[in-house]
């Protein structure tokens, strides 16, 4: 799966994107046709785009870091409920890879996103 989702050179990107779409169509029954896949993609784009408007409006009521903390708290609560419903264990992942991903990707993304919200 990692080779399907990794992007190589710029000229390989369209082929990789097509392979990614095929992966979702094959392994997720909801996306069993390209029309459904495109509809799901369009809905995701609309939700994601509108969330920026809501986040900018929330800056009137909370600072960017308080708002980020509230978002993560809400997301964590939803995930804990889903884990409980699915009866999945809450086993911790390997520490060092998780720390590297958390510091490199998640922290960097959130720092730039919060900066974008206040500028």
Textual characterization of the structure:
- The protein is mainly α and 119 residues long.
- It is 76% helix and 0% strand.
- It has 5 helices and no strands.
- The protein has helices spanning 2-5, 13-27, 34-58, 64-86, 95-118.
- It starts with a helix and ends with a helix.
Question: What's a concise summary of this model?
Answer:
The chain is mostly helical and 119 residues long. It has five helices and no strands.
Features:
119 residues; mainly alpha; extended; disordered N terminus
- SS content category: mainly alpha
Into which percent range does the helicity of residues fall? over 70%
Q: What's the average pLDDT?
A: 78
Q: How would a crystallographer describe the biggest sheet?
A: none
Oligomer: single chain
Rg measurement, Å = 18 Å
What's the layout of helices and strands?
Blueprint: H1 2-5, H2 13-27, H3 34-58, H4 64-86, H5 95-118
